[in-house]
């Protein structure tokens, strides 16, 4: 709302133009009471008024002296005299005569409030001439600020004084309105005009308050200019090398100019930073500097005018308070330049010398302008943040740290991402030594956010720096400063950053307080292990958990560590599981060894879980969980052996000096990581070698008496493991392989003497090789369990010397003989052959075992040997097949017992499926043809069943020629012959087996000729059998026949269309020409060549 100043319209307009940011409280109404005191001192007279002599003359009496006594006398006179008018008038005259203007004003105000107006005072304060003649010289400092002065005495009565000034101007003539000339009754119905008048009053109060503030600024300026004692100034002049310290007011003035320069030259971010660092200063107003001096020119003007005389103060106008220096008393201007430069001039000269690099100790008599122009060729720059940093050389370690703390946040964003790791030493050193916690936190935040997606090498550099930082600052600061940075990025969107967090937790583990290590850090890693989706992050988490387990000493965390081990072992990622075995389990086992719970808690817990799993999985074993538990047990074998050595009776006798033989390279299995190396667990290879010598001697000569750790292995662990082995399913090749590998590593780790004297006897006690032990009806069927293959492949193969091989061959021959003679299932023997056959080293050994069966006197054993050849053929090379397998099978195929001959058919079929040598295939083909075409086998139902079963199994994978020329024609014959089979049971057996064979062969590509001549006729013969024997199979066969007939029809139509299209494309005289021209357009591109022969779409 526009406001009208009833006292001075022109002043109001000028102030509105010069002070656009000032606001006036326009919300107050007459009902709110008198306006509050303005933000300043309203006692200074207006700029166009001459102040009273009392306030300017130092030889006049202070109001605290004579003036006060007069006032007291007047007051008492008024209280006790009946002639009030006469006494009051005398007092008023005395006050005016002695120039106690403020006292007279207050006296006049009190009389007005009492309803007793005094004409003398009314006339005096109503006459503007009494005040317009006076000068605007401000009162002296001691008269304004001193105790008892007008300011201190009348500060509580600001509103009274303001009203006095209003009264003094109320009778002004012309267009200037006074309080008396305003008829508020006229505006009683118009609230807006009444508000305008109130605003005008408030504006006047504000202006007078600012004038008072400006008067105080003048005194403050004078005090600031003379605040350095004269003795100190003499010291600075006499010793030029000592720099005079910057004064607070000088600093604020320079800050204002610097900020103004930054804003004008679009350094907005630098200006914001500069303002934040000087939050105690308002950069919007020059008056906030606190000096009664005009605002100097900007830095650019100062630079250009460096060394030239500055404008005279008489030519400068203080626009903030509208005072002309020429209107001030002469002594206010003339004395200051004579003594020393004005503070404004000091600021200007200081900036000039700072920019130009002037040296006050210079003895040359060059003009400042010439020197400045000369130095301008140096091309220096100090008008920026960086320039200021460059020109301000650090003179102490702390100042270096402060400088780095200021500069690094600006340096980092401008460094290439690929080279930012070069900044890591600077960031870390600064973060270590910087005194401000806030700056240290910012620097560490920069460190962890230095690279958006750090690669492996960059992460290694950051981790190395973090460890160096942790070693330098100690656990407390690591917890307070580094861990929060990890916690902030635990859910970062980039996996590389989360990976950095996971790796940091492990790297910092040795330098953290133990309470934090086993609580906060452990919880962080557990959360990341359970929630993070990136395999590489979980892998790093597992490794860091292993490091934590190496330093943890809170035994209550054992159960949490055990659950973390099981959780990480169940991870779907192979790399995570690998990290568990390489790092976590060895570290966790080392901790449990110190706790004494490796043998009493950790291993028994895993065994209990395996047994529970076997009990629950009678109808379907969870092989994955079994693998998890058994692999954990396997990783615990090295620490278990280390415990046995370290707690042996001979441990104290181990001597490191002397001739200690080196450990054989093959003595231990290859460890998955250095942490699983027994030498690493023990401490050194020398110590391990010394202990192994004593260990073997103890086992061979002195026994295990008093050796509690080893007795636990022999009497508790081994029997429980053998019992578990006997309960697993022998047909599960995965379970057999897992346990075989476990026992192999177990025996190799504990050594040959331990295996021969402690492990083998326990297995042999159970596997007593006699026919009584395979009596299924009596419950003695241990030879049919997985114990056989696990003992053969896990224990007997640990050592490969001649006696060991003989023992293995003898065991397999005995098992084959015993099972054959007992008519027991051969699953355990087959499992042994499959596990051993996977390793070519044992192929010759297995062929030796089978040849033993080929020449055995019992037909049952020869049948078993023939069937075992089927398992061995797939893994044996063709040379061995030709030299050892086929001759043995041909020998068996001419065996007197028909059952032995029939047993060779699956092995012959497997050879047809896997071998590529034509001569070998022809020999097998001739042998199979003799089975089919020899009249002596015409009524051999079992032989026909085995041949059909074998054809159905190997036909889809056999050579196409063998399938088309041999398999399908003979199947057709067998199907045709089965139509005339008189025995219904045999007929349905053959029909069912033929159905399975034809179903498998229907997926193969069959030529049209074979399809028409053999495949379809065979299916029709089979359908004829199924119509009578199995109607549900007949429906399926009908659909198969129909589908095959459609294929034949479509193939014939396609061939006809293809021949027609070829013929039509070649019709015409220019067919050859077109073809040759098309070929001529081709380049060497194979793709273009292929396009020529593509059918057009």
Model description:
With 1097 residues, this protein is mainly α. Among the domains are: 451-595, Leucine-rich Repeat Variant (Alpha Horseshoe), CATH 1.25.10; 598-768 and 779-810, no CATH class. The chain is 65% helix and 1% strand. The protein contains 54 helices and four strands. The strands form two sheets. The chain has a two-stranded antiparallel sheet with strand order 1-2. It has a two-stranded antiparallel sheet with strand order 3-4. Strand 1 (317-318) and strand 2 (323-324) form a beta hairpin. The radius of gyration is 55 Å and the shape is elongated. The two termini are 83 Å apart. This is LisH domain and HEAT repeat-containing protein KIAA1468.
State the oligomer. Answer: single chain
- The dominant shape is elongated
Uncertain segments are 1-85, 133-191, 236-241, 309-341, 354-361, 1059-1097
Largest sheet: 2 strands, antiparallel
Please give the alpha-carbon distance between the first and last residues.
83 Å
């Amino acid at each position: 709302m526009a406001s009208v100043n009833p006292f001075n319209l022109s002043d109001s307009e000028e102030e509105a133009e010069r002070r656009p940011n000032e606001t006036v409280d326009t919300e107050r109404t007459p009902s709110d009471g008198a306006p509050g005191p303005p933000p300043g001192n309203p006692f200074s007279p207006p700029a166009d008024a001459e102040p009273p002599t009392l306030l300017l003359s130092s030889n006049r009496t202070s109001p605290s002296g004579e003036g006060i006594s007069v006032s007291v006398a007047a007051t008492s006179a008024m209280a006790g005299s009946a002639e009030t008018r006469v006494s009051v008038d005398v007092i008023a005259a005395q006050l005016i005569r002695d120039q106690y203007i403020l006292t007279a004003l207050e006296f006049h105000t009190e009389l007005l409030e009492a309803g007793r107006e005094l004409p003398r005072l009314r006339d005096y304060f109503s006459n503007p001439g009494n005040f317009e003649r006076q000068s605007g010289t401000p009162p002296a400092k001691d008269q304004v600020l001193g105790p008892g002065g007008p300011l201190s005495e009348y500060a509580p009565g600001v509103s009274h004084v303001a009203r006095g000034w209003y009264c003094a101007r109320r009778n002004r003539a012309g267009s200037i309105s006074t309080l008396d000339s305003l008829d508020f009754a006229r505006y009683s119905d118009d609230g807006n005009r009444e508000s305008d008048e109130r605003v005008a009053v408030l504006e006047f109060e504000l202006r007078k308050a600012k004038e008072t503030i400006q008067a105080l600024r003048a005194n403050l300026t004078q005090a600031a200019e003379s605040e350095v004692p004269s003795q100190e100034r003499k010291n600075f002049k006499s010793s030029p090398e000592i720099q005079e310290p910057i004064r607070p007011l000088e600093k604020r003035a320079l800050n204002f100019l610097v900020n103004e320069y930054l804003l004008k030259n679009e350094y907005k971010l630098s200006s914001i930073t500069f303002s934040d660092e000087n939050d105690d200063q308002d950069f919007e107003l020059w008056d906030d500097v606190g000096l009664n001096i005009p605002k100097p020119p900007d830095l650019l003007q100062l630079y250009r005018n460096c060394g030239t005389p500055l404008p005279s103060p008489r030519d400068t106008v203080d626009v903030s308070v509208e005072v002309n220096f020429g209107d001030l008393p002469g002594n206010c201007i003339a004395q200051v330049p004579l003594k020393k430069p004005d503070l404004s001039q000091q600021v200007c000269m200081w900036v000039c010398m700072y920019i130009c690099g002037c040296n006050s100790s210079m003895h040359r008599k060059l003009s400042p302008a010439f020197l400045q122009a000369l130095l301008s060729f140096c091309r220096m720059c100090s008008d920026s943040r960086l320039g200021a940093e460059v020109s301000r050389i650090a003179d102490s370690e702390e100042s270096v740290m402060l400088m780095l703390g200021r500069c690094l946040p600006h340096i980092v964003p401008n460094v290439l991402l690929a080279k930012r790791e070069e900044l890591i030493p600077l960031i870390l050193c600064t973060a270590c030594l910087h005194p401000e916690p806030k700056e240290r936190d910012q620097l560490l935040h920069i460190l962890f956010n230095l690279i958006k997606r750090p690669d492996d090498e960059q992460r290694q550099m950051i981790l190395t720096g973090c460890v160096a930082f942790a070693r330098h600052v100690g656990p407390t600061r690591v917890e307070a400063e580094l861990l929060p940075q990890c916690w902030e990025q635990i859910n970062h969107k980039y996996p590389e950053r989360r990976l950095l967090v996971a790796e940091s937790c492990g790297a910092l583990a040795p330098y953290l307080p133990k309470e934090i290590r086993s609580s906060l850090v452990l919880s962080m890693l557990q959360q990341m292990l359970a929630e993070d989706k990136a395999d590489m992050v979980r892998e790093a988490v597992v490794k860091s958990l292993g490091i934590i387990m190496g330093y943890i000493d809170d035994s209550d965390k054992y159960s949490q560590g055990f659950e973390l081990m099981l959780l990480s072992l169940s991870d779907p990622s192979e790399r995570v599981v690998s990290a568990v075995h390489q790092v976590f389990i060895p570290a966790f086992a080392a901790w449990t060894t110190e706790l004494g719970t490796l043998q009493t808690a950790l291993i028994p817990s895993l065994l209990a879980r395996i047994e529970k799993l076997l009990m629950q999985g009678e109808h379907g074993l969870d092989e994955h969980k079994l693998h998890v538990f058994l692999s954990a047990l396997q990783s615990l074998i090295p620490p278990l052996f280390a415990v046995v050595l370290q707690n042996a009776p001979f441990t104290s006798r181990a001597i490191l000096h002397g001739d200690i033989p080196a450990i054989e390279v093959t003595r231990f299995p290859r460890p998955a990581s250095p942490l699983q190396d027994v030498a690493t667990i023990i401490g050194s290879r020398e110590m391990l070698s010394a202990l192994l010598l004593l260990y073997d001697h103890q086992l061979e000569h002195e026994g295990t008496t008093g050796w509690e750790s080893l007795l636990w292995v022999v009497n508790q662990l081994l029997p429980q493991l053998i019992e578990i082995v006997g309960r697993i399913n022998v047909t599960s090749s995965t379970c057999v392989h897992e346990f075989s590998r476990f026992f192999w590593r177990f025996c190799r780790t504990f050594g040959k003497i331990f295996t021969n004297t402690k492990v083998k006897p326990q297995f042999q006690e159970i596997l007593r090789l006699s026919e009584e032990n395979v009596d299924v009806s009596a419950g003695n069927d241990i030879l049919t369990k997985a114990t056989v293959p696990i003992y053969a492949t896990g224990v007997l193969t640990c050592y490969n010397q001649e006696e060991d091989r003989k023992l293995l061959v003898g065991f397999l021959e005995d098992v084959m003989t015993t099972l054959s003679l007992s008519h027991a299932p051969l699953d355990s023997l087959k499992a042994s052959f499959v596990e051993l056959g996977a390793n070519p080293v044992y192929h010759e050994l297995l062929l030796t075992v089978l040849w033993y069966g080929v020449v055995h006197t019992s037909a049952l054993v020869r049948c078993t040997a023939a069937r075992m050849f089927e398992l061995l053929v797939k893994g044996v090379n063709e040379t061995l097949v030709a030299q050892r397998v086929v001759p043995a099978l041909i020998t068996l195929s001419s065996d007197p017992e028909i059952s032995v001959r029939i047993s060779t058919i699956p092995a012959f079929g497997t050879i047809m499926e896997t071998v590529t040598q034509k001569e070998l295939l022809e020999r097998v083909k001739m042998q199979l043809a003799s089975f089919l075409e020899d009249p002596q086998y015409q009524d051999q139902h079992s032989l026909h069943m085995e041949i059909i079963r074998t054809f159905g199994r190997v036909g889809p994978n056999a050579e196409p020629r063998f399938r088309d020329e041999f398999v399908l024609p003979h199947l057709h014959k067998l199907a045709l012959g089965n139509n005339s089979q008189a025995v219904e049971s045999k007929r349905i057996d053959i029909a069912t087996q033929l159905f399975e064979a034809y179903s498998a062969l229907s997926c193969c590509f069959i030529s049209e000729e074979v399809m028409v001549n053999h495949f379809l006729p065979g299916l029709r013969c089979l359908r004829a059998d199924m119509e009578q024997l199995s109607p549900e199979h007949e429906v399926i066969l009908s659909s198969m026949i129909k589908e095959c007939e459609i294929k034949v029809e479509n193939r014939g139509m396609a061939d006809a269309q293809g021949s027609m299209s070829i013929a039509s494309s070649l019709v015409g005289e220019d067919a050859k020409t077109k073809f040759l021209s098309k070929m001529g357009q081709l380049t060497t591109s194979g793709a273009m060549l292929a396009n020529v022969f593509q059918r057009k779409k």
